[in-house]
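TL;DR need structure tokens for one chain.
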Amino acid sequence: MSTKNPRLNVVLEPGLYSAIQRLAKRDGTSLSLKARDLIREAIEYCEDAYWVKEANKREANLNKKSALSHRQIWS
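>> reply
TL;DR here they are.
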């Protein structure tokens, strides 16, 4: 069977499998789609956490005397 999307096989603990199964049933979707959506959300969360960390590093190193104000940047 040929498909355009790559496949991923995952081994889950019984409790995790049951949780995904319950969520899929609640949302009226398949296990595959629910797992895909949860993975997508987890990746977005990880990316957000990364950018928050980077922003905090930049803010810690910010020289406020040489920084431009919002008005200076957008005028």
